[in-house]
Amino acid sequence: MTPREYCKIFAAEARAIPDFGAVPEIIPLYLIYRPANTVPYATIEEDLVGPFERYCVKERDGSLAVQSSSEIAQKCCAFQHWLYQWTNGNILVTDMEGVGWRITNVRIATKLKGYQGLKESCFPALLDQFAAAHRCNRYCEILGLKSLESLQQPAKPKGSKSPSLGRKAPSAQSSPQLQKKGLASPQGTRKGAVSPKASRKSTEAGEAQLAPKHKALESDRSSQLQ
Ligand SMILES: [Zn+2]
């Protein structure tokens, strides 16, 4: 589903709530063919007439920002929260700007591989950033959204810093290079603070995790040879 389709579902839900009022709409993009142009394909939007405003956007430094406290901006934030919850923390709309209630230029961050044909996850860190930075407004409350803190909590007692760390683990296991990278960086930056013993321990733990895999491979091979 595209952000526009998600937004339609959101709008349907919001309209069912008497107190919610107007709902932002993501306007469609059209693809046009311009053979005479150096870039033959272009996307065009319906004409947006009026002052262009930025509501919830991604800053140049990569941080998420809410640009205004208007009703529209608050509802855009509520839509971000709604979509985040609806997709179990897998999809975030990162840019919402436009004219009045008509939103355009939306971008998406996702942890899902294969979303909209994407081969890799796309700015996955932004989803965690959103979960930490989002402050619920009255429209989140009207929609009955769960606070993001409560969504995050189940992973905390286990000692991992954030749910994303826990979720990243399986992919790190499948590629040993990534895992080593992750281990190496804290050692490099905190050489003085971490004792060599501790860092050795962590590499051993990393190797130990991989060991069963090798064994399995070897036994496969030997059984094939016999
Ligand atoms: Zn919220």
TrEMBL record:
Entry's Gene Ontology BP terms: cardiac muscle cell development
Protein name per its UniProtKB record: Alpha-type protein kinase domain-containing protein
Alphabetical list of Pfam families matching this protein: Alpha_kinase
Keyword DNA-binding among UniProt keywords: no
Comp. bias intervals (Basic and acidic residues): 215-226
Keyword field contains Disulfide bond: yes
GO molecular function annotation: ATP binding; protein serine/threonine kinase activity
Organism from which the protein derives: Chelonoidis abingdonii (Abingdon island giant tortoise)
Chain positions covered by the region annotation Disordered: 152-226
Gene3D superfamilies on file: MHCK/EF2 kinase
Domain Alpha-type protein kinase: 1-148
Coiled coil location: none
Keywords: Disulfide bond, Immunoglobulin domain, Kinase, Serine/threonine-protein kinase, Transferase
GO cellular component: nucleus
